[in-house]
User: Fold these one by one.
Assistant:
Number 1:
Amino acid sequence: MIFHIAIKDLKILSKDRKALMLLLLMPALIMLILGTALSSYFKDAKRIEKFPVTIVDYDKQKEAATFISVLKNYYKDTFELTENNEKDASDKLKTNKAFAVIIIPQNFTQNILKGKNVKVEVRSNTEESIRSQIVEGTVEGYMNTLSVGIKGYAAFLDVFKLSDNKEFMKNEDAIVMGLMQNLSGDLVQYSETTKKSVSSLQYYAAAMMVMFLLFSSMTGVSMMIEERDNKTLGRIIGAGASKLQLIAGKCLGLVIVGCIQMLILIIFTRIAYGVDWGEPIYGIVIISFCSIFASAGFGMFVAALAKSLKAANGMGSTLIQVFTVLSGGMIPIYLLPSFLKTLSNITPNWQAMDGYYKLMQGVGISQIIPNCIILIAMGLIFLSVGIKKFRIV
């Protein structure tokens, strides 16, 4: 009976073009956009040929030199960098000899040392929107990282000023320059303690896949509530199925859909963008299954608590968006305040994302065991509530 219920749901879903678009085409499209817009952040940017970018440096000081060095070293396969004065740079932009101009303002280094906000201007060729986005995203990523360092250093400095540490005050400039040098390393790095860094493409591929996995569970929720409203669930129970079998069948259907969805998205990102999901492969399978189980349980949880289809869609969408933000799915986790990082641990998104990131970093399958246990526990809790609270009629 359980398998019959699951197969019935799969047949209904296969005929729902809107649902299929949400489950497969939408995440694939978003990953395509992210992959194009952020292609400068990963090593083998083969989709965009190397293109000319010119820099105007009004500062001529150490921090400006560090910024330029980062661009030359980390993006040498993407940017063909030259340095010019502003007039020549503008002429190159107009004649398409440069696709973008990066202008480093005067007092760039001085303002950084004083903890002030700094702004690097990017002028781009409107006809080259993708390349312009790459340059703008690269500069923005660097400045965001630098901003975190500035704020951290300001707090650090305030503490030492209060302590009247004279030795520190003598070496203030040297210390802050050391901090900024450390920040100028891998601009898109998930953790400072890993064997491998996780690129922005890997980071958001995992984040978006997990988010859409939760959204796919909402498709099953909609089907359940519609069937409850039109008395279909009552007829299934009348045909001999128990409430437990009914929910188990619905959950199995969600698990199968989740497996298909994740398989397609992992293969798509691997082939289209060369995303390295880590190893061993069975580790990816294990964390994926645990994520799918937690997602299916989440769907049952929402279905049990919502009294109507509208309420279910509202509740589910809100919770998924909150989970995504808390887990660093919108803003990288290392930029979030410490209390939000703590809260992220109670979201299925972060437990799944963290498991994928560990495999991407090559730390070994034993490190994802805690994530798997938590995801399974979350799925069981969600399912328990679903079984207890769900109304057949």
Number 2:
Amino acid sequence: MKAKVTFLLSILLSGVLLAQHASTQQPAPAKMPSTPAPVFVPLPKDIQCSLQGLSFRSVVGAHGQMENTNGTVDSLNCWIAAKGEGQKTDIPLASNDITHEIIATKDFGKLRMAPQNSVSSAGFSLSIRADRMKALRAFLLSHDTAEVDAQVAARHPTEPIYVAIPDWADCEFSGMYYQSVVGSSSGMNGSLTGMICSINGYGSLPKRDVALLSTSITDGVLKTKDFGFLRVEGSNSLMSAGVSVFIRQDMVHSFHEFLFQGYSNGEANILAASQYGDLVRVNALLSAHTDVNATDKDGDTPLALASLYGNLDVAKALVTAKADVNVQNFNGGTALTWVSGTYGNPILVRFLVASGADVNLRTKKGYTALILASSWGKDDIVRILLRANANVNAKDNEGDTALIDASANGYVSIVRALIAAKADVNIVRNDGATALSVSLKNEHTDVADLLKKAGAHE
């Protein structure tokens, strides 16, 4: 299969287009120390896990990948699968919520749940922070037999951990030619003439050549001068010529520094560092008087990006530096609306509200933070916003209210909270529908009963 490839690689769940990424910016002045964000790696084959009581919703993205996964899980069991199925061990959860693909555990930090890239399958994969992998394996072995311990040790000597190139970089391959068999586990073979990468997302940024020791790809391996071996995998799709690239986990920080080296655009740097969660770099840029309210190509600020990606410490630093918490992007969204709906994050919502976020600002489609939280089933966030005096009867451009959206989706606890906050149960949507009519249409009889008791009309 020949492919002249000069394409941007974004790390997709299916491994279709690969990402060779960089944080999001341009030239950072001198060398500034940075603290890379935690790197998630897939659980190895010798560690198997099962989720009990799993319920989740995902959106199928433009390329078939599953996105925006939110839901709940009752419990998590894992075991060492060295010989048959090992002894299952309960992994205590810090929360039963799955928020933006993240499952929080008490002892091993955050796990990332990636649903299988198939509308017809409920499969999923789990990833863990690379620095917690050893502790998890030790924990499971301590609950299993010495025989399993010995078998695992023999089968899994210390070997480098490869992770997908971070999604804060864009990379392009030039002159690429490769052959691979769809569905085959064997590595691809081919060649290329060059590879360039840059920090992604914020205009035209300088690109840097990645020095290659060889222009050949052999059994899925590409040799570089500064970052060791890269693993290259062809997309498992007859419809795509995309590739996925993986780098050694211990080289991610070096790759990050390589892409920042020599950059001088402070505004692009602070946007990238805020998204990436690089508190050290953000503080250095703020000390250099970089505009704390710089905006990217979508109109988002460093605070919006830090909030969207769950970087609370960075968000605090930006607010301390007088970041405007109410800047609206080109779609009217704010840091608060980002974290109230799809990417629900109660901790950041609480912080932003306490920092002066206007809970009643609307997007261009008329969505308020409360409407978004109610439509996505974010109980905790709904209560935080109601306590902050969010307009409980605000309508979006189609006439939907928080109550109508929650009723349509059958979110009983949210409907109860909105009614308690004096939501108008008889508000009519632009098309004539009401909270009661949509709840009955969708067969949410428990919601309908609540609405009727609150005075909703048939």
Number 3:
Amino acid sequence: MKKFNLKTFTAALLSVVLITASGCTIELPGGTIDINGNSSTTGNHSEKQNVSIDPNISPSFSDNSGTLHTNSSEFPFNNNGDDNIDSKSFYVTGVTDPIALRQRDDDSSEVLAQLDVGTEVKFISADSATCYFVKYEEKNLKGYINKYFVTDEKSAVCKRENYYVSKETTLYSTNDSDKQELGKIKKGQAVYVCAKNSGDYWYVNIKDTKDFGFVKCTDLTTTKPESSSSSTSSKKDTSYPTGSGKAPSSYVLYYAKVQTGYLAIRKAKAFDSSNELGRMYTGDEVYVIDTSTGKYWYCYSPILGILGYVNSDYLVSTYPGTASPNNDTYTVWSVRVEKNYLALRYEPAYDASNEIYKLYTGDTVYVYSYSYYSFSDKYWYVYSPKAGMWGYVDSNFIYR
């Protein structure tokens, strides 16, 4: 028998390996390796997805029917600015003038472009309470756009149109089977149609409010309907006079307190835009004359000089006003603005009409623990020791 030669066997084995390597890959039990040393596994495995979803974000967005959602589990994607992703298209709608594409989520931020109705933008993310971060591909610009004036249903795009509610109808959060009721709209109420979605529901904004939603398009008309007693949920209370009058000799002092907008004093005990006599704002004094009139108390507004009914849900017996806060419940923050001033406002929204005081760089405000989640992420409810009053400020311009 021929004697085994270890050197010969080793050389032969090495030659087999080299021959296999010349084919660029070497077969291994668990996979392959190429001549550059890059391996891959065989069998079941997970490929890296070029899509990321942030479970901490609960954005609003439109689906294929133009429906708004706020459930992050339904959110199709959040590409975090990755241009390689085939992003969802949105179209500007529901405005009469071009809408601004801004550098930041701030109405005072630099305007990058003005977008007309029908302009297409590509969605990037929804990490803002009021805006979408999008890409305007025509100009290769990225910025923020008001999310209430875009739709993903191209055929629904329209300029803002004036309509009226032809009969009492319901305002819904969406126009699909998961829609939730937001409230009732009275006959004769003016609305702006912002998108004429396919199907039975159109996207509207109730005139002079920040309320958006979907209503049945068959309940809308371009001509204002005549008012009738049958469409009014409650008739005028004739036991008390309403309108201009003198201050009562006996009353209990209350204050108006609303989260946004105004508190109406009315000629009837019902919510109806047609019965408003005047508007009061947070901090305004209200003289309560009679609380036995149900939800709507009979009151006098010393600011307006008007007698009428006020929704008692928005009246408080003690209001901060110029009172100093408890030192144990707040932290001190400083104002920092590059130019001009930071407005202290009576409502958490950017509007020149709601400014009550001007704060400048170096001024301090007291921020409470609940301010971080009061009404919006952007506007915090604070106390200004300089002004001696409470209000809302844009949290982007205060620092610790």
Number 4:
Amino acid sequence: MAFDSDQDKAIAARHDVFKKAAASGTLIAATHLPFPGLVQPLAERAPCPHHRIAHG
């Protein structure tokens, strides 16, 4: 089963979304992350390209 018919374009699109979210400070919700499932992408990529938003 393939989820992306053009994997190179899918990877580029995801990188673009994360780059734009990092530049604007936009939070991204992901149901596969622990509660509350929000991350704030960062401009730098290593070692961890996002901040997980803490709960409580």
